[in-house]
Structure formats: C-alpha cells, structure tokens
Amino acid sequence: MLTSETVSADFPWLSLSILFPIVGSLIVPFIPDKGEGKEVRWYALIIALITFLITVLAYFKGFDPNKDGLQLYEKVTWLPDLGLTWSVGADGLSMPLILLTSFITSLAVLAAWPVSYKPKLFFFLILAMDGGQIAVFAVQDMMLFFLAWELELFPVYLFLAIWGGKKRQYAATKFIIYTAGSSIFILLVALAMGFFQGGIPDFGYTHLAQQDFGRGFQLLCYSGLLIAFGVKLPIVPLHTWLPDAHGEATAPVHMLLAGILLKMGGYALLRFNAQLLPDAHAQFAPLLIVLGVVNIIYAALTSFAQRNLKRKIAYSSISHMGFVLIGIGSFSSLGTSGAMLQMVSHGLIGASLFFLVGATYDRTHTLQLDEMGGIGQNMRIMFALWTACAFASLALPGMSGFISELMVFVGFVTDEVYTLPFRIVIASLAAIGVILTPIYLLSMLREIFFGKENAKLISKAKLVDAEPREIYIIACLLVPIIGIGLYPKIMTDTYISSIDGLVKRDLLAVERIRNDQPTIISNPHLSIGTIASPYLD
Predict the structure, then answer these.
(1) What is the pTM of this model?
(2) Chain centroid to CA 487
(3) Are strands 84-90 and 71-79 parallel, antiparallel or unpaired?
C-alpha cells in the first residue's frame, strides 16, 4: 500500500530502465545501414535485451516481494512551482508488469526481424515505446503518469498508419481518437486531485493516497478514470478500436498491443480507481463485475462468429480481459490476485497467439479462415506451436491461464461482501465464456490445419514450416506460461503483499459505507448507489 514505508533505491534501476531504451532510440538514425535494416535490428535487439536485463537486476537487487511498501524509490524535483517531480518506484502492482514489458518488447524486436520498409523508424519507435511503457508502470506521480501514457500513443499510431494493412489509415485514426480522447479524463482528474487542497499541487501517489477526498469527489474522479482506462483495457462498449487495430497491425505490433498495452488499463484501474479512490471503488465494484461478464460473453460470442483470424484472436483478448474486471471488482485477496495474474498470463499468451497469426499470414497471405485448410501436413511444427498456445488460451490445466481464471472464480464466489444470489448469477454467466473459448479456438485450429485442402493456396503459398527464430520466440513465451501454470507462486509471491494491502484498504471503505449509511446509497435517484446497494451484503 502506498502509505506504507517507502524504501529508496541504492541505484537508479528504474530510471535507467526507462531512459536507456529512449536514449538508445535516439541513436538509431545514426547507425550505418544499407537500408535493409540488418544492422539496426541487431542494435535494437541489444538495447531491448539490456533493458530487460536492467529490469531483472532491479527485481533481484532492489525489490523485496515480501514488503508492501514502495521500493526502488527515486525522486528528483523537476518543476517545484508546478508540483512536478521525477518520481519512480515499484511495488507488487507494478514490478511484474515492468518485467513483462521489457520481456515482451525484446521478443517483439526479434519478431520484427523481417521488417525492411523504413527499418530505422520502426526500431526507433519500438525502443522509444519500451521506455514509455515501463514508465507507465514505474512512475509515482499522476501528472508524470499522464505524460508517459500519452508517449506510447504516437508510436502505435505510426505503427498502424505506416506498416499496417489495407485499412491502416482508418485503424490508426480510430485508435488515436479513442485513446487520445479518453486520455483527457486522466489529465482532468490529475489536476482535480493535485489541486484538491489548494496551494502548490502535489501529484504524487503517496500524497494522493493520504488525502481525505469526499465521496462525491471520488465518484466523479472514478467515473472519468473508468472511461479512460476502460478504453485501453478495453471494456465493452469502448472496445471497438481494438479489433480494427489488430486487424491491420503487423506481428510485433500485435505483441505490444496484446502483451503490454491492454495491461496498462488493468494496472491503472488497480492503482488509481481501487487504491486511490477506495470509497468510490466500493460502490463501483459491482458495475465492474457486470461489465466483466459482458466482456467475457459478448466478446467470446463475437470471436466465435469471426472469419478473419486476427479479429477472432482480438475478440478473444477482450473476452479474457473480462476476468481482470471481475477480479478487480472483488474484495478478496484471491480474486484480486487472480486479476493480476490474468494480466501477466494474457500478456504472454496473447503475444504468442498474435505472433503465430503473423507467421501464418506470411506463409498463406490470407487471414480468412474460409480460404485456409489442410496445411497441417506441410507445417507440422507450426501446428504444434499453434496447439500449445491455443491450449494456453483456453485455460488448459497446467498453464497460466487456468490458474489465473480459477483464482478469479474462487476469489469472487467466496467473497462474502456480495450477496450469494449475485455471486451465483455472475459465476454462472462467466462460466459461459469459459465454455465458449475452447469451442472457437479448437474449431479455429481445425479450419486452419485440417479439413478440405485448398489446392490453390497450397500450390501458390510458400508453406515452409516454422523457422528457428519463430520456434525460439514461442518457446520463450511458453516457458513462463507453463512455469506459472505448474507453480503459480513464482509470480503470485511477487505481488501478494501489495494485493493484501490494497484489499484491506477497500474493505475498510466497504465498512465505512455500511456504517455511515451515506446518501449516495440510500438515495434511489442516484444511479451508482442504486447499482451498488443491492449487491453489497
């Protein structure tokens, strides 16, 4: 919890992990290259791997998972008259996602090996985005968070607009309108919270966590942040930019979108909505759970109907992120821990599936399932990789997706804050998504690799099997997927102390609402209270 003891860093690990790839990206234009990107891609890979090594060293040398407080803390006064500081640190909510970011980015650079069109610009953007996304999870100042949040929008827009498919301009424009437009709410809430007490503003998380914001103020801030982070998560109906973006993106951009970008929304909901605005979270939590169920069922059914391979996996991602919403809306350590594990798990699984989508498209030159079929005999290793990653996505026991979804289910069902009928209804509805997932994923595998052969496709396409680089990328993702599935404490121990502190803070807010009988619940004309009160036991 942010109000616990703060441990300063002996070495600026987090600042280095943020600034190193950004500074490294600035050198990309000066690298001697013949225009094919052979030299610059090696340089980008080295920078990304060093960044990953820095985050690993930060974890092992400066981070104690048994402590609840902020660690690796660094603070430098930036513009004191405006209350702006360079403030970074890590706790259990952020450290796993910092590691995930640097890990996925390293693999995305390797996945971008075939990029030959404007390679310097491509690798410049991917390195700059690496530092910006690490900053989103590491900064401890809300205004600095807003700047880091905005930094990653520009690279993604260019990735889509320059290297995207036939409808790349539409997808890129829709992405920037949705994400940049929703970011305005982050800025407004940051200013409102920072100037709440007047005088020189203070946007630090620790300061904001100690403020006594009124419930009405909290509800307004929570509403704005829910829209902003709901777009990035994404929450239905704020999700429509994601299938279009995935439909036009290239494989490495897919990996960044599915592996990291969506996790920014889940992390921000935990950090700001649940941690800094506990009274509002206690009243909004049932709505989050309902939205989570809508995500799971609607996206699963939509994915089932998709005939475009990229869009099918994109809707699958939206469905899986619904479990994150249910976990965040629960008031149990197990359910909230499951939400955190689901973010890490889906980051790995989503990146693997989308990489395989790109690899398959490079061979077949089609994304339409109706045009595929019968290629399993020609690409046996590729089929094995697809099968392993699909099993991970459908939550096969022994893989990370199973344990994370199970934790969310059990955590919510045993959460006595909610009434028993509400828990039964929500669990039953969410189970529908669990049933639909293996149906559409296994049918997808059948349509791609088996069934009637498309002789025209097989004769024209270069159906070479998986290359060593592709096998290596998937292997790197499958190792933690299986490792977490078999022994989840590898991951859960890194954040359980922070999750426990967060849940205790939210449970105290629930008790305040019960004991104080606030107007927001008793007044039937106020919609949030009307939504919350029937489900809070």
Answers:
(1) 0.92
(2) 22
(3) antiparallel
